[in-house]
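Q: What residues go here?
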């Protein structure tokens, strides 16, 4: 794995478009207590057993991604709605609806 001076110490988590996986930076990995196994989840590992930084399905839950603020949710929602309207979409769904997201949509 190559080191990048700009990113190497940053806590970074990227989510797949289908919400089944997260990719996390080495800084995130070093901050975690990673179990050997997660029921219903996959922690991808190198041949030596160390985690690669890819967490799938239920293993995503051990990463500890903070809940976005109300302001962030409004910005994301506004951007998404404007982009959908601009491109002719008439409906959107969220396949990974958490309780806090559901409450936001109801408001």
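A:
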């Amino acid at each position: 794995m190559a080191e990048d001076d700009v990113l190497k110490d940053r806590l970074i988590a990227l989510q797949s478009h289908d919400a089944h996986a997260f990719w996390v930076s080495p800084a995130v990995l070093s901050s975690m207590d990673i179990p050997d196994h997660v029921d219903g989840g996959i922690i991808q590992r190198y041949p030596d057993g160390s985690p690669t930084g890819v967490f799938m399905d239920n293993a995503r839950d051990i990463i500890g991604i903070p809940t976005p603020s109300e302001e962030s949710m409004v910005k994301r929602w506004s951007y998404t709605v404007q982009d959908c309207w601009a491109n002719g979409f008439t409906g959107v769904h969220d396949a990974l609806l958490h309780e806090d997201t559901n409450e936001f949509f109801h408001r």
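A: Context that may help when evaluating the design: The chain has a mean pLDDT of 88. The helical segments are 26-31, 70-86, 99-106.
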